[in-house]
User: Fold Signal peptidase I from Thioclava atlantica.
Amino acid sequence: MAKKDSEGGILDTIKTIFWALLIAGVFRTLFFQPFWIPSGSMKDTLLIGDFLFVNKMAYGYSRYSCPFSACPIPGRILFTPPQRGDVVVFRHPSKDVDFIKRLIGLPGDKIQMINGVLQINGKPVDMQPAGEFKEVMAPQGPQGLLPRCTNAPVGMGDTCVKERFTETLPNGVSHDILNITDSGPVDNTPVYTVPEGMYFFMGDNRDNSEDSRFPQSVGGLGFVPAENLIGRADRIMFSSAGRSLFYFWTWRPDRFFKAIN
Assistant:
């Protein structure tokens, strides 16, 4: 009897694990996907160590909605087009990795950078000074990345400074961007015309972001197909500045449950 009870207990445990994994998989596929910010390309909107859930219902579903791109979905279903200014998680068109950037260019738009100022359809966006963004020059996150600074060179432990501006897009969406220089490789670009079914993305940390300003022909992101969209980032759930989640003294409570603009 004891042996049968033991076998029954093991079977019940296996069933519980199976259903828990199935429910978690359905939840992750249809509703929300966790995402951890690994780099500083979206500062100061998103910092290294921010943890968020991606709203996968926002744009409908594609094969990239499932883990390992396993959904047998051609193109997209239940598609709702994203809005300019959305912060979006998507699958890189040529690398098997998820990126998070801000949507700047819609299909048919003409996008250009002139002296560090974003131009959309031939008009510069409104930019207003918003003070400085300051952080300590120190390794950040599990990768130990060092920030780039306007006031470089900066010694370890000293204050790293970047210029901050509030940028307002044509549809009225406002967000902060950071600037280090106006003469970097992507501060002056040709005009990019966004093809039908494609989108143009940029990081808010404008001089420290691999984004659509780098064409795929030179190993960059280039335009992103609608199929590659995974979901919209709406809110930061947790944030830690340390190299491990367990370094509780590096947690940033002021960022817990913070809305993403």
Notes: The chain has a mean pLDDT of 90.
